[in-house]
Amino acid sequence: MDRTPTTAPGPLDFREFAAARGRHLVRTAFLLTGGDAYLAEDLAQETLGRVYDRWRRISRLENPAGYTQTVLVNTFLSYRRRRSSSEHVTDTFADAPGTESDPALRVTLLRALAGLPAKDRAVVVLRFWEDRSVEETATALHLTASAVRSRSGRALARLRAELGADSLSELRS
């Protein structure tokens, strides 16, 4: 009987995964948090920590990146539930401006996203930023497909009212 040890996914595999997906997680978390770069980094780090704890099982999944996105969204939602009332939201951004053609529009969009309820914001980010289907978004957020459609419709209507329809069409192009 051959007793050669099999090589199971180890820390090196996780490091490669984290290096490849880390920036994407931070960008998604940045949108979920409404532009809070520091919180976005914290959420991405916490997400990677949770994934690392279960990496042997997660690495065998068909789509570990999708699973990690789901963990990120759940981490964000649980943070929103337990956030201390002593924290104060500010409208100043510590990041350097991006190279987008209209940084003012980006800041306005982030403020509008921050004004949405956490689950509605998560639906908008997953559906339109991550370009996930209704079914994928529903699975990630533990909602029904009809709840995702109604939340996204309500959130988009609120964004259109705040930003104007012209601003949203500029973002899609």
Residue share in helix:
55-70%
Write the H/E string, N to C.
HHHHHHHHH
Shape: globular
Sheet with the most strands, sense and barrel status: none
Radius of gyration, Cα only, in angstroms? 18 Å
What does this protein look like?
By secondary structure, the protein is mostly helical. The chain is built from nine helices and no strands. Helix 2 (37-53) packs across helix 4 (64-82), helix 6 (118-129) packs across helix 8 (145-163) and helix 7 packs across helix 8. The longest helix has 22 residues, at 11-32. It is globular and about 45 Å long.
Quick rundown:
By secondary structure, this protein is mainly alpha-helical.
Task: Give the helix/strand layout.
Elements: H1 11-32, H2 37-53, H3 55-58, H4 64-82, H5 103-114, H6 118-129, H7 134-141, H8 145-163, H9 165-172
Helix pairs in contact: 1-2, 1-4, 2-4, 6-7, 6-8, 7-8, 8-9
Tags for this model:
173 residues, disordered N terminus, WH-like_DNA-bd_sf, mainly alpha, DNA-binding
